[in-house]
């Protein structure tokens, strides 16, 4: 059994790197030849299930542990909490004990920060030190090779929605619903920029309506995401008769699956980014995706793209993409296809773990 200390372990993406067993979504932390170790509790826990900032990237904490034993450290998310110098100490600790490091590069531009300098400095350390690098698309792999001269293994993104939930039929709808979810106005999102073009596209289609969702954190004074100026401008769309504006708490998983099943197309107004789990959830539920061309979303899966970047936006391309999504409805990926894909993904990861362990020994 290969013991994998994953950063993190509890994230749905990481859980879905294990194969499905007995057709159940309640799979254990171990499957086949791989065992995922639980996330060590952080110094301070503010919310249930919190794994960040990850103790496994703290070289001092690692050196003090006598009861933490693993064969591979696999880093996915959470390293933004550590300066490049701290990450260097961590990889030195691992290599000094002949413990291999595997890195999956999900984000080449951290979606939470407009300034990407620190993120790239952190990747400078991790990519060069990793004994194996994984990423999700060929475009990202080429970018990694161009910057660091490192070859990556491209492993496709697994399903996000539970397999049994994917098998439910979508609810009937009397209109073509275009969804824009502002969420908490994360740094890479600019829903305000796209709304006029979304409304224009909806009005050009015979049966289209627009649904605009906003997390209530945007309007809470005590919230880290408090942004009343942009929030108020988004609320102005309540005056449009064909726009349904909804403010609510952050969706839990079940509510998110219901939301994505209630809209026909989801617009991703990203100024910067790389890959998207939201995109995969849409695929699982048969919701079309209209995404900006700033990252590698079109490499990740079939989407309708429009031109948008840090300092640019072409509204005509968004209108065209929405019209295309109306003309070409997207069927959901079958749960059986996703289960087979997940087995391939699990086999690939197990093979990578065996290879780096053998090489290190």
From TrEMBL:
Keyword annotations: Glycosyltransferase, Transferase
Record has Hydrolase as a keyword: no
An example Gene Ontology molecular-function term: glycosyltransferase activity
Protein EC: 2.4.-.-
Positions of the Glycosyltransferase subfamily 4-like N-terminal domain: 41-155
Protein name, per record: Glycosyltransferase
One Pfam family from the record: Glyco_transf_4
């Amino acid at each position: 059994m290969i013991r994998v200390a994953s950063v993190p372990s509890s994230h749905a993406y990481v859980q879905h790197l294990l194969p499905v067993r007995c057709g159940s979504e309640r799979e254990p932390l171990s499957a086949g030849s791989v065992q995922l170790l639980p996330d060590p509790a952080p110094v301070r826990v503010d919310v249930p299930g919190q794994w960040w900032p990850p103790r496994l990237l703290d070289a001092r904490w690692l050196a003090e542990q006598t009861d933490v034993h693993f064969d591979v450290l696999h880093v996915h998310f959470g390293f933004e909490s550590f300066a490049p110098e701290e990450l260097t100490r961590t990889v030195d600790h691992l290599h000094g004990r002949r413990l291999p490091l595997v890195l999956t590069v999900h984000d080449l531009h951290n979606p939470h920060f407009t300034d990407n300098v620190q993120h790239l400095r952190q990747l400078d350390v991790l990519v060069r030190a990793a004994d194996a690098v994984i990423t999700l698309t060929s475009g990202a792999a080429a970018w990694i090779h161009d910057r660091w001269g490192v070859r990556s293994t491209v492993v496709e993104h697994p399903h996000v929605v539970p397999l049994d939930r994917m098998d439910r039929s979508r609810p009937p709808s009397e209109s073509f619903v275009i969804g824009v979810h502002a969420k908490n106005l994360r740094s890479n999102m600019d829903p305000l920029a796209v709304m006029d073009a979304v409304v224009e596209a909806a009005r050009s289609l015979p049966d289209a309506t627009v649904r605009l969702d906003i997390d209530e954190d945007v309007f809470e004074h005590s919230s880290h995401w408090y942004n009343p100026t942009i929030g108020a401008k988004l609320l102005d769309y309540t005056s449009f008769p064909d726009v349904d504006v909804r403010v609510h708490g952050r969706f839990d998983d079940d509510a998110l699956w219901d939301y994505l099943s209630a809209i026909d197309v989801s617009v991703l107004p990203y100024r910067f980014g790389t890959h998207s789990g939201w995109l995969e959830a849409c695929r699982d539920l048969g919701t079309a995706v209209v995404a900006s061309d700033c990252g590698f979303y079109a490499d990740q899966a079939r989407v309708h793209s429009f031109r948008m970047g840090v300092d640019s936006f072409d509204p005509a391309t968004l209108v065209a993409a929405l019209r295309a999504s109306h003309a070409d409805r997207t069927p959901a990926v079958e749960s059986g296809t996703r289960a087979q894909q997940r087995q391939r993904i699990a086999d690939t990861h197990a093979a990578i773990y065996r290879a780096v362990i053998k090489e290190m020994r």
